[in-house]
Amino acid sequence: MKTTMTLTGLTLALLASTAHAELRLGASLSATGPAAFLGDPEAKTLEMLVEELNANGGINGEDVVLTLYDDGGDPNKARTFATRLIEDDGVVAIIGGSTTGTTMAIADLADGEGIPFISLAGAVSIIDPVREFVFKTPHTDRMACEKIFTDMQAQGTTVIGMISGTDGFGASMQAQCKDVAGDYDITIAADETYGPGDADMTPQLTNIANTDGIQAVLNPGFGQGPAVVTRNYAQLGIDLPLYQSHGVASNGFIELAGADAAEGVRLPGTALLIADILPDDDPQKEVATTYKAAFEEQAGQPVSTFGGYAHDAFALMVDAMTRAGSDDPQDIRDALEATSGLIGTTGTYTFSETDHLGLDLSAFRMLEIVDGGWSAID
């Protein structure tokens, strides 16, 4: 799929008589395939925001032209499309990488070619070590581990079992959780894994449940795997707290797992999922509720954390392009790195030379699934 989104609503006469400058923005997203639950709302969000921006005058009087490719979650396709965006489509910046795999395929190319790139994937390796032209909007998997372990520590939990996906995100978060568990006095007494296509995790969960001393279970992963884990967990009647990652922070996860099975599941998420119940003085209230209302009206589907990542990436890029006053990729990159206090649906971003994420742990909200919906723990 290739989508080119330009300004709508101008008359043919105006188009014929006016030479209008353009800023070319590229995107490679997993709008179809196994990661479509990530890429579909991301693509719809970017298309919506570009249309809205151009209808209001664009950036410094210039329209934004979005060239969007669907990589289907395939890193090879993502790299091919990134090459096409840079060499053939002449973009000055790229948003995308719905998954860690597709992000890493784009990141090396974008950094080498000097094109600013904002990733929508979770792994800490995307921005650590820092690459000059690579930024990201989601919290890292390491931060998710820290947020979860902070909650476990508050509950008096010291011994856990872990069941992780072997996909790029699951494997990365598993490693990060192991690395920081000791900082929270947490012992991982059972450590199981599953493949992306596995349809039954009862053997692994039974091993965990039969391990002495287990007080809670953590499932790093995204896609259908965590939903299967959650259903199997309920079927086995395991009476221990179950924690998921921010990789499943959407209503789609609740629907896939089933509201009854998902009841009580805890995970770190964003303000967007609880936009309607945020206090009026919450700095993210206006941004989250405005985006939520616009997306749900236009897309006809519930808002998701993942679309929020695209919203924030676009807001960051528009802000940087506006301040740069230039279509030079180096100028845009420099303006991105100088971003300070930009409020998004995911948190408040402040980048620096040594930080291309720009969020701290306070940007995460600890959430619990209650009665088929989201409830804030903190």
TrEMBL record:
Source species, domain of life: Bacteria
Keywords: Amino-acid transport, Signal, Transport
Gene Ontology biological process terms in this record: amino acid transport
Stretches of the chain forming a coiled coil according to its record: none
InterPro entries attached to this UniProt entry: BCAA_transport, Leu-bd, Leu_Ile_Val-bd, Peripla_BP_I
All residue ranges annotated as the Leucine-binding protein domain in the record: 23-357
Pfam families: Peripla_BP_6
Signal peptide (from-to): 1-21
Family: Belongs to the leucine-binding protein family.
Protein's name according to its UniProt entry: Branched-chain amino acid transport system substrate-binding protein
Species for this entry: Sagittula marina
